[in-house]
Amino acid sequence: MYFSDHNEKITFSNEWGCILKVEGKGLVCAEDLNASPGSFKPEKYSELEFTKGITKVTKGFIEAFTSLECLVIAFSVKSIERSPELDNFLITNNVLIRGEYNSLAERLAKELGLRFLHCDIFLCWTSYESQGGYRESTKRTLCFRLDGPPYIYREIFTPGISAGNNGGADLREDLPEDFYVGCDLDGFTYNLPQICEEAIMQNKQLERFLIISNQRLGKK
Asked: For labelling alongside 25, which of 48, 126, 135, 181 has CA 20 to 30 A away?
């Protein structure tokens, strides 16, 4: 975890090795690259994600990530200051753009002729007590990929038990390529246990995806 020395509202999370998440609220600028503790090196990250809450990115920030292969842009980002240098950088690196439909991310990809892939959608957390008396929690995410069908990714956590022993697992449940056709939030719950229903029915990001996907197919 790094903290911008320029703006206390901006932090950087690098929990997944070469993936860096920019978190916080409002504007992100090149000055935020002066971060602590230690030596912050943008060039070592191949995936950069602007998370929900970030609204604008100014010149000089993205270009610092010279090894960039994938750029994830949250729906909340309404402005990325463009320059010929930035456009050329993204095109030359053939950067994959990820985000929601009808968003700045999709418009950027279309304008530059880059690949676009819908961002993964967090679905819900569920928790229950197992027969062994352990509290088991599961995180479910709807994931998309360029080279295969979408899938529901389940991350299972059991405190006190090693993931390599009796508890904890990462599981993938493939979905049909056209799982969303004619599907609304209520219909999507059939893909999941009943315990997930309440969270799914309140998931605005999933709702946007289903509505726009079906509009594009002329189903709604």
From this structure: 126
Contact 160, 168 (CB under 8 A): no
Domain ranges for the chain, please list them: 2-118, 121-216
| Residues 96-127 pLDDT 10s | 999 999 999 999 999 999 999 999 999 999 98
130 band by pLDDT with thresholds 50, 70 and 90:
low
Amino acid letter at 98? R
Please say whether the beta carbons of 220 and 214 come within 8 A. Answer: yes
Alpha-carbon dihedral angle through residues 112, 208, 18, 3, given to the nearest 10 degrees: 100
Query: What confidence score (pLDDT) does residue 135 get?
Result: 78
Res 158: pLDDT? 79
Residue 150 has φ and ψ, to the nearest 5°, of -65, 160
For CA atoms 61, 65, 70, 72, the dihedral sign is negative
What pLDDT was estimated at residue 220?
60
CA distance 143 to 54: 22
**What sign results for the dihedral spanned by CA atoms 209, 213, 215, 216?**
positive
